[in-house]
Amino acid sequence: MTLEIIGIAGSNFVRTVRLVAEEKGVAYEHVLASPHSDEVKAIHPLGLVPVMRHEGLELSESQAITNYIDRAFEGPALVPAEPREAAQVDRWVAYCATSVDQLLMRQYVIEYVFHKDDDGNVVRHRIDKAIKRFAKIYASLEKGVEGGFLGGDALSIADCFLVPMLAAAKRFPEGEEHLAASPALAAYFERFSERPSFAATAP
Ligand SMILES: N[C@@H](CCC(=O)N[C@@H](CS)C(=O)NCC(=O)O)C(=O)O
After folding, report:
1. Domain over 3-72 is classified CATH 3.30.160.20
2. Where are the domains of the chain?
């Protein structure tokens, strides 16, 4: 049975999982379903996307899903076999899925897209609070991609976590400015955005 990746196209974590499938060359069906829909709640206890189905296996949590796809299917390994190299990938995945996601997605992009005051304007003080921490996080990512990819010299799952968030933040002024001011990160993003997987998963 075909791998089913379930969730909305605009979710950074759904895009992460789809990027991993695309980069592995794994055929999959993208099933559109909203967070908290019955289909999603049947797999994730809190109704969060992405969730996945494959040959009787139902799985939630993007880190578990990406590792499953990497291990279960043929195609280029997206986590290195060498333990120290794998540790670097694990470290950047954890950092992206927690700290980077919290700041860039939850406290910034979602503020711009979903949270408006009674007049329909963005809540400026909440965005201003988030962008105070941008310099530190973009500097850490700038250093992280110095080997060509995040945490190493080959494409890995870590890149599939980072790129959707950079793309989402770039849609808004401060995200675009901080990316442009980070030369290695901007070049990395430019290179990745030319990959077929990037176009195939665009929201
Ligand atoms: N730890 C989860 C987080 C998933 C997550 O936060 N998904 C968001 C979309 S990017 C969601 O479903 N949000 C709905 C909500 O928070 O109510 C994972 O890595 O899969």
Report:
1. no
2. 3-72, 83-195
Q: What is the pLDDT of residues 15-51, one digit of tens each?
A: 999 999 999 999 999 999 999 999 999 999 999 999 9
CATH class of 83-195: mainly alpha
**Nearest Cα residue to atom 5 of ligand 1:** 48
How confident is the model over 79-134, as pLDDT tens digits?
A: 999 999 999 999 999 999 999 999 999 999 999 999 988 888 899 999 999 999 99
CA 175 to chain centroid, in Å, comes to 15
Å from CA of 102 to ligand 1 middle? 11
Ligand 1 atom with the smallest distance to the CA of 8 is 9
Which of 133, 161, 182, 148 has its CA nearest to residue 20?
A: 161
- Ligand 1 is surrounded, with C-beta below 6 A, by 11-13, 35, 48-50, 61-63, 97
Domains 3-72 and 83-195 share a fold: no
What's the token pair of residue 111?
């503020």
